[in-house]
């Protein structure tokens, strides 16, 4: 499976066509409304997979495998933290396999980013889990589905079903109704979830990049089937 920095994906959406892993100042312009609308045209749904490479081995091993890109499909962008900058497409394999999601010079920012989505006194659910965002072009809340399967195969089977449901519901509903419809479906099939606080996705991503880059890492994306922009 291949991954690439979400900054590089945003740059392609804006037609900038260049990447500077240290240029945090460039990110606000990449996250302006018009560019996010182009981004939205490429991906119907954006998710964030929050996990720790050591503590959450079943999820980490799943990410290290080769099926996440195919499981999520071409219309869903799955993001997670990565231990080094990824200005170009890089494989999640080989010597890097044991380091997925791990930021060496500090704490893995996944948990911190998850906490920022539950402000105003809301209970922060226990990771690992998958955040599914609403309309990525504006202030949005999300739904959080915990992933506490014990084996990699169980994680894979569960997420394949979850991604299939996400894609189907995204196709059938308007963006403003998507999370409500997804929550109703999950309740119907017996899945418990948490609703995050609403916040500008631009603000959340900026914080994520700052934390990851400060610790030598990145936020990367997996695009279904290819692991790169199509």
Structure commentary:
The structure is a single chain. The strands form 2 sheets. An 8-stranded mixed sheet has the order 4-1-10-3-2-5-7-8, sandwiched between helices. The chain is built from 9 helices and 10 strands. Helices cover 40% and strands 18% of the residues. The protein has one domain. The C terminus is likely disordered. Helix 1 crosses helix 3 and helix 7 packs across helix 8. It starts with a strand and ends in a 7-residue tail after the last strand. It is of the alpha+beta class and 230 residues long.
Q: Helix and strand layout, with pairings?
A:
Layout (H helix, E strand, L loop, with lengths): L1 E4 H9 L12 H4 L2 H10 L2 E6 L6 H8 L3 H5 L3 E7 L7 E2 L17 H8 L12 E5 L5 E2 L1 E5 L5 H21 L2 H14 L5 E2 L3 E2 H14 L3 E6 L7
Helix pairs in contact: 1-3, 4-7, 6-9, 7-8
List keywords for this structure.
230 residues, alpha+beta, eight-stranded mixed beta sheet, two-stranded antiparallel sheet, 9 helices, 10 strands, globular, disordered C terminus
């Amino acid at each position: 499976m291949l991954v690439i920095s979400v900054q590089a994906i945003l740059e392609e959406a804006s037609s900038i066509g260049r990447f500077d892993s240290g240029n945090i100042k460039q990110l606000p312009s990449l996250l302006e409304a018009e560019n996010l609308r182009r981004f939205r045209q490429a991906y119907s749904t954006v998710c964030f997979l929050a996990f720790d490479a050591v503590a959450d081995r079943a999820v980490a091993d799943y990410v290290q495998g080769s099926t996440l890109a195919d499981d999520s499909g071409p219309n869903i962008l799955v993001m997670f933290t990565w231990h080094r900058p990824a200005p170009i497409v890089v494989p999640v394999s080989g010597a890097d396999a044991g380091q997925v999601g791990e930021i060496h010079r500090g704490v893995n920012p996944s948990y911190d980013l998850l906490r920022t989505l539950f402000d105003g006194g809301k209970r922060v659910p226990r990771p690992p889990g998958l955040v599914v965002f609403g309309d990525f072009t504006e202030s949005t809340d999300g739904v959080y589905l915990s992933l506490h399967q014990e084996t990699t195969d169980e994680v894979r089977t569960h997420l394949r079903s979850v991604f299939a449901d996400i894609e189907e519901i995204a196709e059938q509903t308007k963006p403003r109704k998507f999370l409500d419809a997804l929550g109703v479906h999950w309740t119907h099939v017996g899945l418990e979830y948490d609703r995050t606080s609403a916040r500008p996705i631009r603000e959340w991503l900026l914080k994520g990049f700052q934390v990851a880059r400060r610790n030598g890492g990145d936020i990367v994306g997996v695009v279904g089937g290819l692991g790169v922009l199509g």
